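During data preparation, we tokenized the protein backbone, and the record follows.
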Amino acid sequence: MERDGHFAGDDPFEIARGWLAEAEKSEPNDPNAVALSTVDADGLPNVRMVLLKEISDDGFVFYTNYNSAKGRELAANPKAAMVLHWKSLRRQVRIRGMVGREEGEGADAYYASRSLKSRLGAWASEQSQPLDSRTTLMAKVAKITAQKGPNPPRPPFWGGFKITPVEIEFWADGAFRLHDRFVWRRSDIGESWKIQRLNP
């Protein structure tokens, strides 16, 4: 099967990193923004935007509060889908797979790289929970600032998730809506990829 140009390569993670690197040069805001889809306990889908922080050799990593709605949904049903869409490139990447936590040194290092205000905000925000006012939140931030000081550790309820995919689809816009689509599928993590061209 002929896959040339920006579809060329034998490693879907490398292709995805290459596309993201291209988007970083042309996309005006947050080229690493992804729409993340999970399901709740009743099987009702939920989708929101998050920032993809790493495309590793085996997965796609983002960070969040584990007690948030997405954190709770992923704990109950550790499967997810995400899509990166770049209008500047007229391309997208769709990912579906299994989810596991990314904790330890990698999560600590990413947390430490964030601004101090973001690190303190992670401690103060009970993400997805009801909040009576912004004043209440800012008061909590001030209290956490006094307690934790200028170098707060990563909260135990905050860290990463990695989607290890069983399906990755690369899509590029084509003339007359005759788009190019290639999907990489495997029956299970660790299995070999099978690649197919799809109709637009």
In short: The radius of gyration is 19 Å.
